[in-house]
Every structure is written in C-alpha cells, then in structure tokens.
Amino acid sequence: MFLFQIGFIDITFWDFLDVTIVTFLLFRVYKLLKGSIGFNIFVGLLLIYVSWWGVSFLDMPLLSSILGQFVSVGMIALLILFQPEARRFLIYVGQGSFESRFKSINRIFKLTGISDENNPLKEKHIRSIVRAFEQLAQTKTGALMVIANQTNLEGLYSSGVVLNADLSTQLLVSIFNKDSPLHDGAIIVNGHKISAASCVLPVSKNPTIPQQLGLRHRAAIGITESTNFVAFTVSEENGTISYARNGQINQDISPDSMHKLLQKILFNQANA
Questions:
Q1: pTM for the full model?
Q2: Which of 27, 60, 81, 186 pairs with 34 at a CA distance of 20 to 30 A?
Q3: What are 237-257's pLDDT values in tens digits?
C-alpha cells in the first residue's frame, strides 16, 4: 500500500507501521530502564555496537574482530544482564493482554460466576481499609498492603500464609499488630478477600529512591514496577501513609485522600 514518496524512496503503510512499532518498543525500553543501573549498561552496549560498526567501516580488522566478539553474543548478554528488567517487561505485557481480553469477554458474555469471586472492593471494604490504616498510622504500626484484583497471583510474591479471609478493619489491624506472627511482610488483598499475609515482595533496586525509605517502601515500589497493582504502607518511624503505583511512591497522604484514591482506582479497574 503506497502512501507517499520522498525523493527516490517509496514509503508504504507497512514501513510506517514498522517504524511506529520500533519507536514504541524503544520508548518502553527507555521507560523500563530509566533511572536504573541497567540504563548505563544499555548505553555501554550501544556504544560498543556503534564502535564495532565504525571500525568495520574503516577496515580496522583487529579492533573489528575484538568488538565483533561482544556483538555476536549481544542478545545472550542482554538477556543475562537485563534478566530482572526482561522479566518485568514480559509480566507487564502478558498481564495487560490477558486482563484486557478477559474483561472484554466478561462484558460481552456477562460471566457472573467468576466476577463475583474477584469483584472490585465495595464501598464498605474501602472504608474498612481506610479505618484500619488510620488506626495503624496513629499507633505508628508498620504495614504493607497490596491491592491486586487479579485472578492468578502465582509468581508475583514469595512465601506468605494463605488466608482467603473476609476483609475487615479488625482483621487488618490484628495482622499488623507487632505481637502477631504475620505482621512481618505484606498482605495481598484480592477482590474483597485478604488472600495472603506475611508475603515477601520483590524489592526495587531503583537507585533514585530516597535513602530514608526502608525495605517496606522499597517492596511497595518493587511490586508495582512489574504489575498494575497499588501498594499502601504505614511508616513505623513517623506513622505516615504512603502509596506506590507504577513504580512511583507518593508519601504522607491523608486517610481521606486514601479513600478517594481507592475509589478512583477501583472504579477505573471495574470499567476498564
């Protein structure tokens, strides 16, 4: 399909589509690596490739042979060096594709049998969460909660105790009580259930995270880097509530802001 001509070059629709897709992929790679050590490694590998192309063009066989050894194993080297980033990217792509397709089918065929089990939080559940975090903040009790709303959570966290319990303020407060055996770790809220407690989450290695943030906040950032989940934390040091989304953290939010945020996020998920 011919679109237009620049000089002696014919630009077709497929050429335009090809460039658009490559541009999008490069943009996603940049967003994935931005602010991490992996970005510097990627730039280094890119410089090696450019140098190899240059010395090959200038007919410098010794340097071309040496640099060619790096280029020839480039894809394997990339997979080894960027294993965490590649895993996050694949999880992001696969999760978004299957979730959107499933929701589309669910809307078309009105599959009520599955949606009731994993339905978004209702207003009463949101109020229970906000009340619990307000109490935890007042007593400066550390807490980490992940709002998942996804059917399959396997592989997104390690360890943990399966609960599958009804969501309530009393249960949330008791889990994070310092005398509770389940207080150390995160709880996973999926639908209107507390799926698991004392879960170990992947910790973000982003070097731009403020130094004053501890492992609880870094874990909240880490789980949201590779998923569309939302994580809420309560700081033991100052009792402030924070939330993480898309690998970014927002600190010191009020209970009222938390309530509005949960309503907004869950409403968008329900209508996505």
A1: 0.61
A2: 186
A3: 999 999 999 888 999 999 999
